[in-house]
Amino acid sequence: MRWNARAYDSSFGYVSAHGAPLVELLDPQPGERVLDLGCGTGVLTADIASRGASVLGIDGSQAMIETAIAQHPGLDFTVGDGYDFTVAQPYDAVFSNAALHWMSRDPEAVIACVRMALRPGGRFVAELGGAGNCAALTSALLTAWREYGLAEPELPWYFPTPAQYALRLEKGGFVVRLLEYFDRPTPLDECPNGAADWVRMFAGALLDRVPPATVEPLLRRVNELAAPALRRESGWMADYVRLRFAAVRH
Ligand SMILES: C[S@@+](CC[C@H](N)C(=O)[O-])C[C@H]1O[C@@H](n2cnc3c(N)ncnc32)[C@H](O)[C@@H]1O
């Protein structure tokens, strides 16, 4: 997945803006070592650092990391893969906002890397999309693809139920201390083209396989299909569902 870091910050800043309660749950302490997994452009990494913690942001996207370094010159960022990263010295906490559901290929490998990155007693505090996340958006997408005779796209996300993810955490060597599963309807205030803008940002890789002349009408159809569920008088509202947890390494 190629990320457009500029569009991410300008139109989808709500992702990190909604991360503030997760930073509160992490409750970073001065001097603590924290790793921010899938840090994106580093907005929450900087928030954690502002509490006095020493933070490393890692992300699989070179574009995201370049933007993070440019926007937060005093902080440490590096390109790294959530499925396969190691650290020289263990961390007190691993934090992750809106990134784990992108690591859909092998969630167990991600949890194993997080465990290895933590000291015993270290905490894993994260939020990801939960089962049913963006269901109306993805259903509109799949229907539009079908109507246009396109091959059914493989969606890139993993949206587990609370029970599924808790089991993975326990099997992966963590004690789950808190697990919340909640709807978070999210205004797409900076997305004048509503669901179509969301698809371009988060499912852009699927559009690469669509004939160029079909992209615009296809996205218009996504909007028509999604509108009854997601379009309000005040604007578009995405049907986000979140899974937020705090777990401790054995
Ligand atoms: C929606 S963004 C969230 C960014 C940031 N945490 C925030 O709250 O704004 C998801 C991030 O996960 C990163 N990501 C996806 N798969 C990854 C992987 N396998 N390893 C590391 N980062 C990954 C993406 O590059 C992207 O920056």
Automatic annotation (TrEMBL):
GO molecular function: methyltransferase activity
Classification via CDD domains: AdoMet_MTases
SUPFAM superfamilies: S-adenosyl-L-methionine-dependent methyltransferases
Gene3D superfamilies: Vaccinia Virus protein VP39
Protein keywords: Methyltransferase, Transferase
An example Gene Ontology biological process: methylation
InterPro entries: Methyltransf_25, SAM-dependent_MTases_sf
Protein name listed in UniProt: Class I SAM-dependent methyltransferase
Organism: Microbispora oryzae
